[in-house]
Amino acid sequence: MQNKTIIPELFVLGAGPGDPELITVKGYKILQQADVILYDNLASQELLNLAPESCDKIYVGKQPYGEYTPQEQIHEMIKHFAFNKGKVVRLKGGDPFIFGRGFEEIMYAREQGIKTHFIPGITSMQASGFEDIPLTHRALSESVWMVTGTKKDGRLSADLKLAIQSKATVVIYMGMKKLKEIADTYIEASFGDIPAAIIQHASLPNQKSVRGLVKNLPELAESKGLTYPAIIIIGDVTNIGQ
User: Fold this and answer.
1) Element (H, E) at 10
2) How would you classify residue 54: left for phi > 0, otherwise alpha for psi between -120 and 50, otherwise beta?
């Protein structure tokens, strides 16, 4: 019996916001063909059950503000398994190209001569609809700003000050440890009374949320025991129907 010809490939796949049924059909099919899955802590582990029994499933998660697998180590694993196993699926929560470092992994793989594929996922802000929060709404919000709450150097993105000046809905990822700084930024700009919401574990059975004013974000989170992973949504759309 001839050995299987190994074709090194990387599939960077978005797992969606949490609910495993929100993965795309294309992503579903690729998981059934995977030789190796490198998955993080925001991807539903139920999705791992779609893979063949022979598939290696390896956790390379990054707990927010805690222990993590260094990106350089993930790169080396992609290279090792692609050339030794074949189809490597990098399963990432949400959408890998929205604050997910997915394109960094694709660029690295291409440099190694590995064929790459991208399969989008539903990003967590799109799950705001489960709390009856539309990201845009006629006459209220005509655009959306996505801002990272924690840059590579640990600081809050300076783009937030620009976003405040617009009438756009502002969505902040990875900002739960910056709630006071976010609130203070809005207060200093005289916009502390803008409605806001926090949604934790969006799309999952243990989903929790709270609404109020942006100036009260720290107290709001504490009142409901909200922590990460969560998204912060700021704008009049959070107040529709309340």
Assistant:
1) strand 9-14
2) alpha
pLDDT value for 175: 92
Residue 157 confidence (pLDDT): 83
- Which of these, 126, 196, 193, 135, lies nearest to 168 by C-alpha position? 135
Exactly one of 26, 29, 35, 40 is catalytic; which is it? 40
Rounded average pLDDT over 159-166 = 90
Q: Pull the structure tokens for residue 108.
A: 């690295």
Give per-residue pLDDT as tens, 46-99. 999 999 999 999 999 866 555 678 899 999 999 999 999 999 999 999 999 999
Per DSSP, the residues of 34-88 read -SEEEE-TTS-GGGGGGS-TT-EEEE--B-TTS-B--HHHHHHHHHHHHHHTSEE
Selection from 4, 175, 207, 19 nearest residue 99 by Cα = 175
Respond yes or no: is residue 62 known to be catalytic.
yes
SS3 210: strand
Any alpha helices (H) in the chain, and if so which ranges?
A: 25-31, 71-84, 102-111, 159-164, 179-188, 217-224
Q: Which of 19, 29, 35, 62 is catalytic?
A: 62
> Tokens at residue 231, please?
């998204």
> Averaged over 7-35, what is the pLDDT?
97
Q: How many angstroms separate the Cα of 218 from the Cα of each of 62, 154, 185, 200, 235?
A: 24, 19, 13, 14, 17
User: What amino acid is encoded at 170 in this protein?
Assistant: V
| Separation between Cα atoms, residue 156 and residue 175, nearest integer Å | 8
Please tell me the predicted confidence (pLDDT) of residue 67. Answer: 65
